[in-house]
Amino acid sequence: MKPDTRLTHAGRHPDKYDGVVNTPVYRASTVTFPTVGEMGRRFAHRFDTPYYGRYGTPTTNALEEAVAAAEGAAFGVATASGMGAIAATLLAVLAPGDHLLMVDSVYAPTRKFCDSALSRMGITTTYYDPLVGGAIADLITPATRLVFCESPGSLTFEVQDIPAIAAAAHKAGALVALDNTWASPLFFAPFTKGVDLSIQAATKYIVGHSDAMLGTITTNERALYERLKDTLVMYGYSTGSEEAYLGLRGLRTLSVRLERHQRNALAVATWLAEQPEVARVLHPALPSDPGHALWARDFTGASGLFGVLLHPGTAEGVPAMLDGMTHFAMGFSWGGYESLILPTTGSIPRTACPWPHTGPSLRLHVGLEDPADLIADLRAGLDRLASTPEGSTL
Description:
InterPro entries: Cys/Met-Metab_PyrdxlP-dep_enz, Cys_b_lyase_bac, Cys_met_metab_PP, PyrdxlP-dep_Trfase, PyrdxlP-dep_Trfase_major, PyrdxlP-dep_Trfase_small. Pfam families: Cys_Met_Meta_PP. The protein has helices at 3-9, 36-44, 58-71, 82-93, 108-120, 162-171, 184-187, 222-235, 241-252, 254-273, 292-298, 318-323, 371-387, and strands spanning 75-79, 99-103, 124-128, 144-150, 175-179, 197-200, 215-219, 278-282, 305-310, 340-343, 361-365. It is of the alpha/beta class. It folds into two domains: 3-252, Aspartate Aminotransferase, domain 2 (3-Layer(aba) Sandwich), CATH 3.40.640.10; 254-393, Aspartate Aminotransferase, domain 1 (Alpha-Beta Complex). The strands form two sheets. A seven-stranded mixed β-sheet has the order 1-7-6-5-4-2-3, with helices on both faces. Strand 5 (175-179), helix 7 and strand 6 form a beta-alpha-beta unit. The longest helix has 20 residues, at 254-273. The termini are far apart.
């Protein structure tokens, strides 16, 4: 099936539900068994059939099946949030004494989890340059169990050479995990590039309406799938059926929404790149971006999230710019229908290589509004920035 057809049909079984198109919401914690023998049989097949609410319901199982199909995987696991998916992956794969290679441009809460929870467990983390490519082989030790990627990088949008990293990791016997949220299941096919575990903060584009927290993990390895499932059950990372239903609803329209997000974001990013107040736009789909060649090779599209660097010496004007926005709201998360903008200055930690830009930075998520209105809103904001004493020199 083509991707759009998979999104429409994956995880749907109307024949099981009297012809009902959408898998119903199963609000269930307890599953009962008629005999001791049946209870034992169900436990032996707990990954594939309802056994207990934390292992999943028919609703969560439908989401897992659908997301796995969309990403080209055999197995899927749903979690209560994107961070839950990241934590479950790390905890399922790593053990005390193991070594983790973590990309330096990773989502900040992932970094915090490595530096706190994993460190307390005796797991060592080394951060690596997102642009290292196949040279990551020089950082792999006999204790390296996992290489974790995020491409494009969080806040700074570096594109990683995932095939080269995966080849080096697999040669050394390490697994590769990827936070694939920016690309969604549609714009980057992780398992054709050597990834072993793909993570989605499904809160973002899969849900798509800013109304549910959700995460997913997909893999082609049955043993990894069962380890992930047991880990999330043990730690209580399971998702609720209501959230899974909202994820399924969002998944069905993912393609048409992403097409609009992509078109709008490219229009806004192209315009911003031409403004005198802007030092650089961080968007790999722009031909001027350093990661454009890798993006064009490995990705089939771009989402609505990108970064903007302002000239040094304009930090004082950023509050005036952002406080007066009309269509861009300030808020965390992203992936919904609405446009968002955040100041990210001072929020770009680096360990392996310093972040070179000294001026203010912003993160934009371009929603489904008319891009002309969004551009007008940004132009007014940049005018407010330029009108401050610092900005007047631009």
